[in-house]
């Protein structure tokens, strides 16, 4: 029976466009699954949004994407969050954060400087104050009004610093082929959970606090107690909301992750090749036990597993 779901192609293009602009990634994915015609239109819309975002920082979007593919680097921060949220609430992205491993640091910097005309803006920020920080250094680049930070990690996964101290609302990243949101339910509901490492290890640096304030300012509800962000089941690992217990072990490829794949999967003859160049990371936010009044802690940790 036809419930009228998803027949947005019956509407005029302007109305279709307005509807899409008010949907976040999770709703767009749901709508794309309703009908094949919608899937094509939404694929196109999501792809164009990324191009539009990148075009505000680089002249050659394809060049940036192939550099990201070659180096395994990812774009995170407010620009990645903007692609998860509806276009209608998008603020003009003022800065772009590129995360890269040490092995590809030079290649990324060379691309941005030589191909895109960026120049270093002041000194390289060395993150030496914490021995266990996954963030080795930050290069600040500028081109006129445009600002790009290149965040280098000595870990083998470019995403490591994103998992280490960040609030869940910024645990999103754009790879060459995909858009990944690690806490889709919270991020869709404009909620964010403060990484327990910040209070357990006293690492709320000015940078991270400023980052938090930015999202509070955009109407995000940021909390350090997960139960203030809704119910979750601490015990049942098979429960569909289980990933929202901070004590559960998560991975960048588990069922809780929301991922949109941009390019069609590459095929070689009849064999489908899944491009999984990104190392898989596992993490546990940890922090205080969820039960009210229980101040026992579990360890915050993360590692590269494959
Ligand atoms: Zn829990």
Structure notes:
A hairpin with an 8-residue loop joins strand 4 (125-126) and strand 5. It is built from ten helices and 18 strands. The radius of gyration is 20 Å and the shape is globular. With 306 residues, it is of the alpha+beta class. Helices cover 30% and strands 22% of the residues. Strands 1, 2, 3, 4, 5 and 6 form a six-stranded mixed sheet that branches. Strands 7-8-12 form a three-stranded antiparallel sheet, covered by helices on one side. It has a three-stranded antiparallel sheet with strand order 11-15-18. Helix 2 runs antiparallel to helix 3 and helix 4 (61-71) runs antiparallel to helix 6 (105-115). It has one domain. Bound molecules: zinc ion (ZN). Zinc ion binds at residues 232, 234, 245, 247, 290.
**Helix coverage percent:** 25-40%
Mean pLDDT: 85
The ordered H/E elements are HHHHEHEHEEEEHEEHEHHEEEEEEEEE
Shape: globular
What radius of gyration results from the CA coordinates?
A: 20 Å
Count of all domains: 1
Number of helices: 10
Parts with pLDDT < 50 across at least 5 consecutive residues: none
Number of strands: 18
Helical/strand content category: alpha+beta
CA-CA gap between termini: 45 Å
Bound molecules: zinc ion
How many strands, which pairing sense, and closed or not: the largest β-sheet? 6 strands, mixed
Strand proportion, as a percent range, falls in 15-25%
Salient structural properties:
306 residues, alpha+beta, six-stranded mixed sheet, globular, binds zinc ion
């Amino acid at each position: 029976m036809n419930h009228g779901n998803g027949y947005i192609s019956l509407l005029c293009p302007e109305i279709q466009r307005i509807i899409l602009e008010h949907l976040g990634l999770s709703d767009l994915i749901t709508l794309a699954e309703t009908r094949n015609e919608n899937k094509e239109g939404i694929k196109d819309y999501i792809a164009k949004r990324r191009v539009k975002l990148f075009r505000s920082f680089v002249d050659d979007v394809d060049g940036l994407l192939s550099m990201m593919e070659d180096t395994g680097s990812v774009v995170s921060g407010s620009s990645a969050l903007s692609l998860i949220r509806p276009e209608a609430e998008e603020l003009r992205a003022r800065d772009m954060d590129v995360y890269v491993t040490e092995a590809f640091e030079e290649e990324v910097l060379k691309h941005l400087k030589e191909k895109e005309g960026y120049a270093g803006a002041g000194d390289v920020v060395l993150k030496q104050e914490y021995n266990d920080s996954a963030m080795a250094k930050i290069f600040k680049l500028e081109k006129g009004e445009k600002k790009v930070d290149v965040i280098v990690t000595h870990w083998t996964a470019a995403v490591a610093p994103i998992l280490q101290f960040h609030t869940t609302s910024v645990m999103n990243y754009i790879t060459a082929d995909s858009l990944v949101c690690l806490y889709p339910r919270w991020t869709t509901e404009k909620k964010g959970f403060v990484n327990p490492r910040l209070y357990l290890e006293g690492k709320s640096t000015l940078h991270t606090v400023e980052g938090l304030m930015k999202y509070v300012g955009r109407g995000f509800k940021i909390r350090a107690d997960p139960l203030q962000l809704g119910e979750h089941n601490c015990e049942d690992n098979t429960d569909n909301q289980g990933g929202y217990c901070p004590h559960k072990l998560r991975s960048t490829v588990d069922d809780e992750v929301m991922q949109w794949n941009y390019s069609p999967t590459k095929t070689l003859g009849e064999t489908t090749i899944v491009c999984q160049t990104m190392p898989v990371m596992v993490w546990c936010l940890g922090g205080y036990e969820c039960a009210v009044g229980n101040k026992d802690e579990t360890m915050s940790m993360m590692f590269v597993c494959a």
